[in-house]
Write a structure and sequence with these properties.
Number of domains: 3
Bound molecules: ligand 26W
Strand content: 15-25%
Helix content: 40-55%
CATH topology of the largest domain: Rossmann fold
Distance between the termini: 19 Å
Radius of gyration: 27 Å
CATH class of the largest domain: Alpha Beta
Number of helices: 33
Length: about 800
Amino acid sequence: MIQTPPLRDSVLRHLIYSIGKDPEHAILEDWRMALSYAVRDRVVDAWFKATARTYETGAKRVYYLSMEYLIGRLLEDGIVNLELLDEARAVMDEMERDLGLVLADEPDAALGNGGLGRLAACFMESLSTVGCPAHGYGIRYEHGLFRQQFVQGRQIEHPELWLSQRHAWEFERPEVRYRIGFGGHVDTRDGVTRWHPAEEVEAEAFDTPVVGWKGRWANTLRLWSGRAIHPFDLDAFNHGDYTRAAAPEALARTISRVLYPDDTTQQGKELRLKQEFFLTRAALCDIIRRFDNQFKDVRQLPEKVAIQLNDTHPAIAGPELVRILHDERHVPFEEAMEIARGCLSYTNHTLLPEALESWDESLFGQLLPRHIQIIDRIDATHAEQNPSRTQSMRSDHQVKMGQLSFAMAHKVNGVSALHTELMKTTVFEELHHLHPDRIVNQTNGVTPRRWLLACNPRLAGLITEAIGEGWVDDLEQLEKLEPHVQDAAWLDRYTAVKRDNKAELSNWMAQTYDLHVDPDMLFDVQIKRMHEYKRQHLNILEAIAHWQEIREHPELDWTPRLKIFGGKAAPGYFFAKDIIRLINDVAAVINNDPVTNKYLKVVFLPNYNVSLAERLIPASDLSEQISTAGKEASGTGNMKFALNGAPTVGTLDGANVEIRQHVGAENFFLFGMTAEEVMERREVEDHAKKAIEADPRLAAALDLIHSGRFSPGEPDRYHNITGNLQGADYFLVCSDFTDYWRAQREVDKAFADTQGWARMAALNTARSGWFSSDRTIRGYMSDIWGAGSLL
Ligand code: 26W
């Protein structure tokens, strides 16, 4: 490997020879690109070493199949993981450029919706940090998750244009292309069944190296882009029919054109199924090619290949692997099923019925005529092997992807202890009964490099000064902070770190949105996708009641609080979009109330994404994790807040349960019904009305909304929301309100005791080390993949 020149030299060399600019004329983007190439050079060194080592050892490989990777920016991640921060800052200072502005010039790679996509990105970084040979497979969407704008408080979606700027972190692989077929027919000749697709597109690979801590290892994220086999119809062009001439290319690109922006509701669109098969088939072609290069017998596959299905979205991998083994490699069907199951494992990320994928059999059969045959045979074989089975993966003219994934996996996991138990007693109750050792738990985690070291350098510095830097890839070392938490002077420094982060955020909000807030207010933050089960409307109801209480008792010593919201709603999810509008309308009234606005303010920051989370979380005092118990599979934002010293106000839902166990009940503001109590409360007639009658604050807040107080021009603007809450209130906003109010008043009191609060915050940091995605990945490696580290 060539000697690595100083970063300064590589930056200048790339600026001149890769970007073609001299320092005098270089613009911000040029410097970002030059610095990115210089850092990428060093990532490539680690990458090549890792690739060679994996080949020479013949080690088992992990393949992570996901329709989403919510990556965010990559330059700072590369700099931090290669410990180049000081050098990079020195180089940029010398070039009279602000490193912060250079880093912020990079567009987010927003190839995901929310939790599932971000988890995949954290997992890729942890796989490299622990030195586990792995590939991530996904789709190189030209347009990621839409850009959110507010127009008169309403969400407006704009196409996301990350590729309109040069992208420094991918390598196009024109030589890595696979044909992906759709439609057509199936025939069987001399006992061999053949699928004859009607149309074909090509999947072309784009590789992004994913480097781990200290650059000791780097794995590949391979994203597929749709290409036409015959991109241009010259004959049509010569006849002046230009659109038909360009049609083949346009059609093929449609497959990887845009990410579906739904994160809980299956739309059942054909293009989505085509995207899922496109990703899965290309990945399996690549996996089998790489296996064939090293190993001879496909029966060895489970020994050398572990394939993780990130939810059911790539579940077609089961039938496709069986098709390749049976139709093309002539392995007997049941043996093909066993080999495939030996490789496959499936993670479930939600219990919401509307999020469990099931495809209409005619759409599925038309697009994948051979696969539906194979699924029917898998279903029949599974029924044969489990005579007491009652539920099928092929019922009411649907193809149930959850049932199929479970049947075709050797391990199935949930993403928090509570969620995994609920899987066994709800959606997979019968399958769990039939296969009692198949479901295991792997509680989610987050990478401490991005979500502490990089986004909160002040806190990271304070921690490293106290306990050394071992925590960065061994996060449970944070518990070594406990003695420091007892030291008042250290706690003051801890509080000062948070105060400086809040001041920095306040300045940024002033510059960016002309929003002026007092950094000494309690920064109460709820950032996540908009959804009724996440209950952003419970949060704003409490704000309205709080506002009313301050107006009625301005003399009381209120703890000044700033409520910050961030989150996108799926474009077709109108109720969620109305909650966004309500929050913006309430903010407009409350923030301009001279009596109360020094005690309570509400802001909804637009276009919440990974980079905004990195800005907000280090400056947060309170983490809102208020979902209806039993609905949030895990949550991962909750872990990021705890690590960054923001105690949680939350329900016993998802990973909140384990966070509270680790940080201590005394350092967690618990409220609300448990998952069991939720089930019982639902059975209570008019549970919402009863809750409203029992709580005048709640009643008053609902009446204010219903009266049009926040929508003077259109009094009935939110009658759908008040109607729902006073009626069905399926997510029990009203029934949990009183206890939520109680918890929030406890927060007020606790925050007023600065030292007490600092102790709670610091203990959240010290005791959240277990929520590292390194720990999670090591769990998958030992309990599911049987894969080891090569470090
Ligand atoms: C078919 C449309 C669709 C798309 C995405 C349905 C469901 C999804 C995802 C499963 C939704 C999701 O992001 N789930 C979140 O996954 C996180 C990572 O495990 C969890 O922490 C969150 O609790 C869960 O809501």
